[in-house]
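We emphasize that the prediction below concerns an isolated chain of 114 residues; any contacts that depend on oligomerization or on bound cofactors are therefore not represented. The input was used exactly as deposited, without trimming of termini.
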Amino acid sequence: MVRLYFERPVEEVFDDSRAGRGSAVGSGFARIFPLAPAPLIFAGVGVALRDGGLLPAPFATAALLIAGLFVMAGILAVFGTVGLILAIVMSVVEAMWILAAGITFAIRTSRRLS
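Result of the prediction step, given as a token string:
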């Protein structure tokens, strides 16, 4: 029997029956993230941006809308695959919002400095 820096035989280490555990953890995260962290962050950002003038008003509105859609996706994700897909789509929307907000902020800041 071959042992390579393991306390267990190589056959046990590479056992296929354990392969699905990592994806189950990822799936659990994808189902929980839209329920609490994402909506709270985006709702807070939306409220903070509403009166701050840091970014144009549509960014605040979009952040609040994204927060609401994350809650809906999170609830649906608990019950089925459609919600999980919506949660993943919302994560892409989140990334696009962050990119657009960053670019807008950089442009507005460079205009103020010049």
